[in-house]
Amino acid sequence: MLDENDKKIIEILTENSRLSYRQIAKKLALSVATVMNRVKKLENEKIIKKYSALLDYEKLGFDIDVIIDVRISKGKLLEVESVIAKNPNVFAVYDVTGDFDAVVLARFPNRRKMDNFIKKLQKLDFVERTETKLILNTIKEEETGIYGL
Q: What pTM was computed for the model?
């Protein structure tokens, strides 16, 4: 179970994962050794899975973000999701409830590449139907929404 110090460490690392143990310790009035041990424990328990940079994909030339709902034949969900997840333009695949079985989040540099991906997706064995939504504006996007840990 996480205590308040663990939660505060997670919050600080979520805001800026480049902070040193010393900087985190200073913010929390803890020893450097305590922070280091707690972070290592969180990593070992896979609560902290990895550290990464938050990129501006638009500046990198990826202007088109889409949400694709996918209906998949019974019994083939994980098999199809695994194939979809291997595409480098796909950054998330979720099992969902409702009219569709999976939701795919993907990012493309242009409409032609998006169109090619969707057509290949629709041709996959066991994909029954797709519905694509183009994201027009991003109002809020964060790595986490757990500040109330």
A: 0.80
